[in-house]
Automatic annotation (TrEMBL):
Domain of life: Eukaryota
Protein name: Uncharacterized protein
Annotated signal peptide: 1-19
Keyword Signal: yes
Lineage of origin: Eukaryota, Metazoa, Spiralia, Gnathifera, Rotifera
Keyword terms: Signal
Source organism per UniProt: Rotaria socialis
Amino acid sequence: MHLIFSIIALLFIGHGVHMHLCLWSPMQRGDFDISTPGAHPCYRKIGPCGNINSTSSSPRTSLVAGSKYNVGFQQNLNHYYTNFPGALDISFAVGLNPSENDFHVLHSFSDYNAMNQITQTNFSIEVNLPNQPCDECVLRVRYLSNNLDEDDHGTVFHQCSDIKLTQSLLNTLKKEKENKIQLIENINRQRQEDPHDCCVPESYTNAFFHIIPAIDYQSEGIIYYDQKARQMRVTASVNGGRGNTTVDGLFDMWMNFTSGMQYYYNHHSGTCDLYGLDFWNDWCFGNKYNQSEDFVAADVTCKSPFGPSQRCNQWQNGEFIFETFASSECLPSSITRPSGEKINYIQGKTDPISPSIFVPNPICLKQKKVKHASPRWMRFHF
Ligand SMILES: *[C@@H]1O[C@H](CO)[C@@H](O)[C@H](O)[C@H]1NC(C)=O
Ligand SMILES: *[C@@H]1O[C@H](CO)[C@@H](O)[C@H](O)[C@H]1NC(C)=O
Ligand SMILES: *[C@@H]1O[C@H](CO)[C@@H](O)[C@H](O)[C@H]1NC(C)=O
Ligand SMILES: *[C@@H]1O[C@H](CO)[C@@H](O)[C@H](O)[C@H]1NC(C)=O
Ligand SMILES: *[C@@H]1O[C@H](CO)[C@@H](O)[C@H](O)[C@H]1NC(C)=O
């Protein structure tokens, strides 16, 4: 009984070593012959590629990355185990001579019962090729016999094909798009991280001249900015400041970002209007501080003739050019536009600002009627 079993087992082993497989789409490494059943080039047992190594000058089939491809191969002898069916699989690895662990399976299917060992069965199996181009990669077909008694260089049969995967047109376009997005992200990151981006000192006072040539507009005044107190005050004299209107008057504005109130006081008419403020905005330059300003240049000639220095750092937002003096202090120099409009800043002071500067004129405090406020402001304050 035992002897009979052994003989049967030996017969199976004998059949096992005759399993044959050849691959032509894409063409296998080394010799190829399927003219007869049991052809020698179809018998390659040693992994991962049947003991045939590739070189960079080996024949190589060019396929398109990410495309569908019909792998063509022949089971040159069939050896089906009823109780322990084997499998065939198609796998892929990147590299000239990848190792076993580099391969990943693209498709796998069970052996079939041909009822006759001497059966040459062609297979054409569609696989999705990996989407990543590679210059040197391997497409492999295996026969996994599952025969634990198999002792001829293991139980697996290998056939490797050297291929390269090229970029498809779609992939090329996709890649180009990705590159462009990457480029923009890099530019934005650089801009976000530009070391010149800066904010004016926490406590800052300076005078300004505002000129709009097209309408003969000219105003001058003082800006008080207290970052910690969340207070600002701006005085402005428009076109000489001798009248009562917005184009010829003298004005004082108090901005309290805690109460959300901005008073607009007309010196000559003695009237005061109340407005609702939006949110506090630090006086800063550059995208790093969410000013939507791209850094343009460091240490260029200032557009403004005034100031402690002739050299400026420069940002741009649309047609607006912002400049600060090229020092570590971040002192505003000017805002200019191609139309000729410009605001020049002079006499910057970083001394602490007296709290009384921010106390509105008593006439203003009587004003309760809000001339304009954003809906959000209304919700907050009423
Ligand atoms: C193929 O390369 C491997 C790894 O370098 C080596 O062990 C093996 O002997 C080579 N086989 C042949 C046939 O050159
Ligand atoms: C199998 O494919 C080979 C190669 O294309 C071909 O020569 C042969 O006729 C095919 N055999 C069968 C049975 O289709
Ligand atoms: C700003 O508003 C807050 C809240 O109403 C108030 O307490 C504070 O006194 C105001 N500051 C000035 C300088 O008026
Ligand atoms: C400005 O308004 C005040 C108060 O109403 C008035 O006395 C003065 O004449 C006005 N000045 C001008 C230039 O209109
Ligand atoms: C800029 O905006 C981002 C996103 O809204 C925010 O997370 C960040 O705190 C802001 N930075 C500054 C300096 O306000």
